Amino acid sequence: MSPFDRTAPRGVKRWQELETDSYLATGITRNGKRFKLSSHTWFQISCINIWRGSYWLVRDNHRWLIRRVYNG
């Protein structure tokens, strides 16, 4: 079952934050190398400037996609 609120407007993801949640930023650097950064706070992960990659919510060992970033 998705942790995201289904009543949110289209394109907006909202969720109830739990103590056990963690967040992940994954992607590719401009040099072509893969990276993965994790944190226990959404604020810290959301402040990472991603060139090409994804932001994830990790809950109960499952990843839930929050947002993808594509910059040409």
Describe this structure in words.
- The protein is mostly beta strands.
- It has a domain at 22-70.
- 7% of the residues lie in helices and 42% in strands.
- It is built from one helix and four strands.
- A four-stranded antiparallel β-sheet has the order 2-1-3-4.
- The longest helix is centred in the middle third of the chain and has 5 residues, at 42-46.
- The mean pLDDT is 91.
In short, what is this structure?
The chain has a four-stranded antiparallel β-sheet with strand order 2-1-3-4. The model has no long low-confidence stretch (mean pLDDT 91). The protein contains one helix and four strands.
The overall average pLDDT, rounded, is: 91
Largest sheet features: 4 strands, antiparallel
Task: Enumerate the spans where pLDDT stays under 50 for 5 or more consecutive residues.
Answer: none
Rg for CA atoms: 13 Å
Task: Give me the count of strands.
Answer: 4
Number of helices: 1
Helix content: under 10%
Strand order of the largest sheet: 2-1-3-4
